[in-house]
Amino acid sequence: MAVMRSAPVDLVSYDPAGTPRGTVVLMHAFTRSPRDLQGLAMRAVSRGAKVLMPHLGAWWWPRSTNNARYLSRIAEAVERQRSPGPVVIVGHSAGAAAGAWVAARLMDAGVDVSLLVLVDGVESPSGTLRRSWSALERLPVLAICAPPSRCNRRGALEAWLLSQVRSADSALEVVHLPGMGHGDIEGAGIRVYCRMCGDDPGAPARDALVTLVEDAIERGLSAIAK
Fold first, then answer.
1. Domain ranges for the chain
2. Which of the listed CATH numbers 3.40.50.1820, 3.90.960.10, 3.30.930.10, 2.60.120.620 matches domain 11-222?
3. Percentage of the chain modeled with pLDDT above 90
4. What is the pTM of this model?
């Protein structure tokens, strides 16, 4: 009988010059790779964070962004390799749903996850974000959403997240950023996003998005464990 082997977890890791203040986990988008979030990784390192970036497969099932078993193993690898201090998770597009699953698994393991940032998130076909949501009820979540496009399924996740904000003191914050492109967190003029999503290479909101994410990372790293 054939035995299915588990795909290995590959984490790109960066350390700051001094003692890390905590760990930032960056989850890239569908068909992308850790190198596409290199700029954001260096910004997090400059703020004193250890950065971990897992490779997420697209079509290859064992490492797919839609494979909950593989995402759970990513959480285990992050738990082993993280630095002391809070953990901030940032997920872009399909990486947002993957990041929600990883955050929930880390919290189940008693890890101090201080913040989850969803950058124009897209739900996975198997619903990993919704399946994780009850476990994330007390976790601060910042969702930064671009205008509806082909690449964010016409704003479907933003609409669902807004339905989850039930009180003024909710731990979920949804920010709609006019002029933002789906791929803006990766940098300017990425052709795949211009072609597939209709992004504007000169998007006026790109700097605002980067500032929002950087400020969120800073808040997460500064959080005091409860």
1. 11-222
2. 3.40.50.1820
3. 78
4. 0.94
